[in-house]
Every structure is written in structure tokens, then in C-alpha cells.
Amino acid sequence: MNTEYTVSETLDVKGESCPMPVVKTKGAIDDLKEGEVLEVLATDSGSMSDIAGWAETTEGVELLEQVEDGDVFKHYARKTE
User: Fold this and answer.
1) Catalytic one of 18, 23, 67, 72
2) Catalytic residue list contains 67
3) Domain range enclosing 40
4) What is the pTM of this model?
């Protein structure tokens, strides 16, 4: 994991399938303050492309990193505005 950021909040969406990881990630990001980082823990392998695509097309969100850790996919997104 990158040490250039500090996780502000963790969202556990393990066991959820598309589209819920993205839907819940959007809701959690909306609740953060600018500059805060959300860690998302998912077990749906599709979340790697789904969250990346959502972040790429969403104003105010920067996808910092995605990590595959065994059966868990970890996503780190910063609210930028």
C-alpha cells in the first residue's frame, strides 16, 4: 500500500456484487470532506474495472490505488472537491 495518503474511512462491501460496490462507494465518497481518502474492501473481481471506470468519469474523485489481496480487492479513492 502507498504511504502517500492516510485512509479516512473504510467501506466494507465484501459479498456484494455489481452494481452495489460502486453505488455504496459513491455514497461514502459524498460523505467525505475534500482531500479525505476512502478505502473500499470488495470481493467482487468486477469491482476493479467498475470502480476504476466510475472514478475516471466522476468529477471530484481521484482513484489512488487498487490492490488485489487474496480474495479481497482494495480500492483507494480521494475526494478532490
Assistant:
1) 18
2) no
3) 7-79
4) 0.93
